[in-house]
Amino acid sequence: MNDTIQILIAMVIYMAAVIMIGVFYAKRANKSSEEYFLGGRSLGPWVTAMSAEASDMSGWLLMGLPGVAYWCGLADAAWTAIGLAVGTYFNWLIVSKRLRRYSVRANNSITLPDFFSNRFREKNKHIMLLSALFILIFFTVYAASCFVTCGKLFSTLFGTSYQAMLIVGAVFVLVYTLLGGFLAESISDFMQAIVMITALTVIVIIGVVKAGGIGSIIDNAQQIPGFLEFFGLATPAVDETGKQLLEAGKPVFGAAADYGILTIFSMMAWGLGYFGMPQVLLRFMAIRKEEELKRSRRIAMVWVVISLAVAVFIGIVGRQLFPDALLTKSSAESIFITMSQSFLPPILAGFVMAGILAATISSSDSYLLIAASAFSKNVFQGVFKKNASDKQVMTVSRITLLVLTAIGIVVALDENSVIFEIVSFAWAGFGATFGPIMIFSLFWKRVNKPGAIAGMVSGAFMVFFWKLVLSKIGGVFAIYELLPAFIFSSVCIVVVSLLTKAPSKEIEEDFEAVRAGKCE
Fold this sequence. Notes:
Layout: H1 3-29, H2 33-38, H3 45-72, H4 74-105, H5 112-119, H6 126-158, H7 162-211, H8 214-222, E1 232-233, E2 246-247, E3 250-251, E4 257-258, H9 261-268, H10 278-286, H11 293-321, H12 335-343, H13 346-384, H14 390-411, H15 419-443, H16 449-468, H17 482-499, H18 505-515
Antiparallel strand pairs: 1-4, 2-3
């Protein structure tokens, strides 16, 4: 049987299993908007942990991160991974329990805009509208990154048009999200988290064996200036088109670039993004019991540490095994695919490829569902038609899913898109827009509505301004936009809150009740 056919069969089997999950939970999901958007707060600790991390990591874990390590070595990928691991831990440690409790206290909030609006007991819904709009903007970018993954995966596997495969992947994700809602998405994310970590582990073990062992991999990496350093960076020599130069069949590198403390803080700042990630925060709100979050934290941390470490190492191993196969920054993100196709029998390679598809689906369905809920629940019902029925909300949600998918496809049409770069911008957007105000909302009684609005607007503005304007200057301004934007948002929250009227007595009573461990 043709290798491509075998790979396709394996992937179809996997996709059929995912669709069956959606169908199984479709009836329950359509009972009400709370069931559809939050699963009725019924998630167990394993599903909470694994689905949170799978929906968060996306195809970026299997393609973006290994691609960075393959292209420029250890430093960028490793410091990013370390920052993410630290951010994951503290998000589960300090945010999860308080948010689960507070979301119930705040009028049983089932979306992030709901929570912020109810937290400040607003009547005119300014915070709700703002936060919903920011979710729509940044999740559209996020969904586009997932569609890029689909396009690269299928076009690489089957030698077909990137744009055609992009659309096929996007349609599959859309159909699945329409079917099952949050609960189906969370259950399938749990399964996909297992597929992802298994696929990574299998490929890295085989890769190490094929490369001749750890010692051989290290020796090869050390021959490339800056490639295996925590405080240096490899610099591929490229032509005017961005393609790496070859000399006697070997890729050419320039002198190692400096990697100072500011750059390290910049890459570790990825960890700050967790405090504002809706797809993770919703899992905290959806777990059935607050007491189960401790077990979820442990499960999540084991998964994250193993997955991130293996993903980085795949890029290092791939550089030895396929030194001249991937000669652009964009194509470097296919190293995981290249290794899988080269080392595994076609049918097994198909299931490993399903790992990439798993990561993409687990993220994009989360992004689309949260964005659709933000518009239908918080803009349509929350602002424009407050007496809208549950059926009308669900209808608007599905229309929104169609529109967002179409926009995401348009954003992703460029086949030279780099997944890591698209994700980094959306990640910064969420981290700076929602991260600071989430922390202050949960732990500072004096924060008020003007402070919350100032924090969200300033954080989002600074992400765009730093990325599109200041970063072009270079030097100190070349740092990752999340770090300055997060700091700027935090300062604005404190200053504006202190300069304006203190929260009402009712808001302060809510805060004290939650701090004392009361939900009702």
